[in-house]
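Lab notes, practical 5.
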Amino acid sequence: MVLSRKMTRRSLATVAASALAASFTLVGQASAETIELKVSHYLPPSHTIQKELTRWADELGRKSGGRLELTVFPAGQMGPLPRQFDLARTGVADISFFLHGALPGRFPVTEVAQLPYVFDRKTDKGLAAMSVSEASAVMTSLSDRLAKEHEGTRILYVITSPTVGIYLHKPAGRDPKGLAGMRIRHNGPVTSAMVSAWGASPVAMPPSEVADALDKGTLDGMMFNFEAAQAFQLARSLKSVTVLNATAATFGLVMNEQKYRSLPEDLRKLIDDTTGVAAARRVGKVYDDAEAAGRAYVAGAGVEIIDPTAAEAEAFRAPTLAISDKIFAGAGAKGAELKAFRDELVARVAAGAP
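Output from the prediction step:
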């Protein structure tokens, strides 16, 4: 009888040990489970951001030991340009890269960064625009101020575009008076107001349709930058570029908030460590390099590129300075908040990137 009890105790101990070992195995399997994240954007596969997002996917896969697997869907495969933010907000995509200007009025505080010449600062040679790397670091450092209007998502970083100029299917203009009557494609309310201030007619049009419109003569030009001109292969449809550093578009890389919070803590930290201000600075530098390469591409196609003198640049700048005040006045009670953010942004620009 004593022997039977001993055997029973041993049997129970063996079963308990086996069960404990099995539970540890299941926990290990769960922690090692691959988590797939869908990443959406609207830009072509040749674009800088496609290369950056696939690079980031490789980095996360490597650093997570294969536990994070990102699949990137370019060229609006998951939805058109205006839906990109909501794809992430609603969880259709887990992460998306989108253009704020595609949803005018939806991000009024963020859109302050598009106001004319806000990224200009004084240098020994006069006013000069911040690099994309610096401007993107500044904007991302202000993410807490922008979080409310990105509700439902987590801002991973904000990127500014290289500041835009005027790209024409006609000879270059050194004076805004030469734009009178032209149809110029804009990328949002601010650039639309700038085009109007110069006496031209603003036209809303997806970038993918611009080349055909220029070739057919239904469009005279666009507010654009060199990097995008190369990505969309527009040089053949251009005759001139006037470099103005007039305004910057803003883009956001955002992640669905619930999806982010559902990740294990170490994977959330991995995403945090590879995004934020440092990542915005690095991705911005990629854009700066791409802008230089885009300029070489446009010049190599025989397109005339005009770098205005200080006086010529001021002739374009002066008519746009009232735009900010008009936007603040038209925003009603929110105008004071927008102006305060503009003042903070300008001060941050003057102080230099964080």
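Observations recorded by the TA: Residues 1-31 have pLDDT under 50 and may be disordered. The chain is about 45% helix and 20% strand.
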